[in-house]
Amino acid sequence: MISRCNSPIPAITNGTYGIVPNDLDMNWAIENIYAPLVEAHAVTGPGAGLSDQETEAFWPRVEECSDQANQEIRLQPQVSPELSDALSGLNDRIASDPRSVTALAAWSRCMHDAGPEYADPDAAHSALTREFGLLRPSAVELPDDVQAAIRALVDSDPDELLRLVRETGSIDGRLFELQERERSGAALDLSCRGPLGEVLVTVRNEYQGTFIEEHASLIEPNDPPG
Q1: How far apart are the C-alpha atoms of 104 and 17, rounded to whole Å?
Q2: Nearest-angstrom CA–CA distance, 158 and 48
Q3: Phi, psi of 171, rounded to the nearest 5 degrees
Q4: CA 8, CA 11: separation in Å to the nearest integer?
């Protein structure tokens, strides 16, 4: 419900946000795209019979729904209406604090001077995540005749399908371009952050600390045991 541990801005580890895999190869594609697709099709048939264009639209929607479901699951602990009302404006107050506004404006100016224009690190991270979600279903480029064969093999011979993908497919070049943009964007983001993370954590913890003190009677009964 209220976290004082996680950073309020996306982490950058080993020069990336961790969106596009470092190893973009057929092993990754088989493990993360085709094998799960074949397995899902064998059980329930999602996406069966869709055209390539429909498939490109279908799987990002599946991932979006899955992310939404996971988010709802994380929010399962019951929150009283009184606490929910009190919480509703907390993030807005944190974001509108002059210290937050000043630090984010400095970060945004630094990014803009180098090219990208984002309001905050979350916006930069989200833009790359959305683009990866759109490219991911078509990550592997396949010859037309192989595509036709694959549609038939998904029911009759999934092992042969995966073999064909591995032997005839290639990774869409747009993914490598996105990977490079993620790395360069993360490097620029990191160079522009300065004291941003420290400022945002300080402001958040101050507001949340005050909130917890003022609403202790509403919060404590909702805390999970342990």
Answers
A1: 19
A2: 14
A3: -75, 130
A4: 9
41, 47 in Cβ contact below 8 A? yes
> Please, are residues 205 and 3 in contact by the beta-carbon 8 Å criterion?
no
Please state the rounded mean pLDDT for residues 59-81: 66
**C-alpha span between 219 and 211 (Å, rounded):** 10
Any residues with CB less than 8 A from the CB of 16 and at least 6 apart, and which?
22, 182, 183, 186
Residue 9 to residue 123: CA distance in whole angstroms: 10
- pTM to 2 decimal places: 0.71
**In this predicted structure, what is the pLDDT of residue 215?**
81
- Interval 74-132: pLDDT, tens: 555 566 777 777 788 888 899 999 999 999 999 999 999 888 788 899 999 999 999 99
- Name the band, by pLDDT with cuts 50, 70 and 90, for residue 2: low
Give the tens place of pLDDT for each residue, 205-215: 999 999 888 88
Segment (H or E) for 140: strand 140-141
Residues whose CB is less than 8 angstroms from the CB of residue 201 and which lie 6 or more positions away in sequence, other chains included? 7, 8
Alpha helices in the chain (DSSP H): 26-29, 35-43, 52-74, 81-87, 90-96, 98-114, 121-135, 144-156, 158-168, 173-193, 196-214, 216-219
> Can you tell me whether residue 204 is helix, strand or coil?
helix
User: Could you identify the residue written with the tokens 């088989």?
Assistant: 30
171 sits in which H/E element: strand 170-171
